[in-house]
């Protein structure tokens, strides 16, 4: 059902869309951003103004949605704005280990979730050290030593660029809501169907039609211990 706020003015009334984008609910804002994406430079100007006004507050997935429209646009004004205002992306790329998360932000902004998932595992192996990087997977004991800020950066990137559907914190909330029951958790996030585990990569869903919490995979092929360690990490306290 269309929100009444959206039809309060003509569909191409830029001022009306601008006001609704600022005042509307999250669901309304999501629809407005999609409308603005189809209005050329006028629509891009509104999104630029929207992000500029919100630049002093932590990015939400609504900011991520607006950013993605600009990021995937060929318009010079969009490229110039992002280069000057968000050269690394909409999410600040903080790291206590000097790890570069810019490539991960680029993949997520492009909605290439499969490549982003692979890179997420690689970045976590970088956090764990040279041995993990060489073997390309994690021991659960290595997760405990992950810096809080790095894990929060990775999680924030997934949240902001997935309309709030993906991320370790999302998975953890679902797990907690299910009473920490793994047997109920796996099918809830689409990692298991009946007695059958979802096969990598072709049975996983690499877009926003996936169940909430479906991504990232967090080394799920190696059992419960890595993801249990992630959920127990102090980053979420």
From TrEMBL:
<dbReference type="Pfam" id="PF16416">
    <property type="entry name" value="GUN4_N"/>
</dbReference>
<dbReference type="InterPro" id="IPR008629">
    <property type="entry name" value="GUN4-like"/>
</dbReference>
<dbReference type="InterPro" id="IPR032192">
    <property type="entry name" value="GUN4_N"/>
</dbReference>
<dbReference type="InterPro" id="IPR037215">
    <property type="entry name" value="GUN4-like_sf"/>
</dbReference>
<dbReference type="Pfam" id="PF05419">
    <property type="entry name" value="GUN4"/>
</dbReference>
<protein>
    <submittedName>
        <fullName>GUN4 domain-containing protein</fullName>
    </submittedName>
</protein>
<comment type="similarity">
    <text>Belongs to the CpcE/RpcE/PecE family.</text>
</comment>
<feature type="domain" description="GUN4-like">
    <location>
        <begin position="95"/>
        <end position="234"/>
    </location>
</feature>
<dbReference type="InterPro" id="IPR016024">
    <property type="entry name" value="ARM-type_fold"/>
</dbReference>
<feature type="domain" description="GUN4 N-terminal ARM-like repeat">
    <location>
        <begin position="5"/>
        <end position="87"/>
    </location>
</feature>
């Amino acid at each position: 059902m269309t929100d009444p706020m959206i039809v309060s003015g003509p569909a191409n009334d830029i001022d009306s869309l601008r006001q609704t984008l600022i005042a509307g609910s999250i669901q309304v804002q999501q629809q407005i951003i999609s409308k603005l994406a189809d209005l050329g430079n006028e629509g891009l100007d509104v999104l630029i103004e929207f992000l500029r006004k919100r630049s002093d507050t932590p990015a939400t997935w609504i900011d991520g949605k607006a950013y993605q429209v600009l990021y995937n646009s060929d318009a010079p004004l969009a490229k110039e704005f992002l280069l000057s205002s968000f050269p690394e992306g909409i999410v600040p790329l903080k790291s206590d280990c000097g790890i570069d998360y810019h490539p991960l932000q680029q993949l997520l902004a492009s909605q290439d979730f499969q490549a982003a998932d692979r890179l997420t595992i690689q970045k976590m192996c970088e956090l764990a050290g040279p041995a993990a990087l060489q073997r390309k997977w994690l021991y659960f004991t290595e997760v405990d030593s992950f810096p809080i800020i790095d894990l929060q950066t990775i999680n924030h990137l997934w949240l902001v660029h997935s309309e709030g559907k993906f991320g370790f914190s999302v998975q953890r909330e679902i797990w907690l809501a299910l009473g920490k029951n793994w047997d109920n958790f796996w099918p809830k996030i689409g990692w298991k169907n009946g007695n059958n585990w979802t096969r990598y990569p072709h049975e996983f869903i690499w877009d926003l039609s996936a169940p909430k919490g479906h991504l990232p995979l967090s080394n799920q092929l190696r059992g419960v211990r890595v993801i249990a360690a992630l959920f127990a990490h102090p980053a979420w306290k």
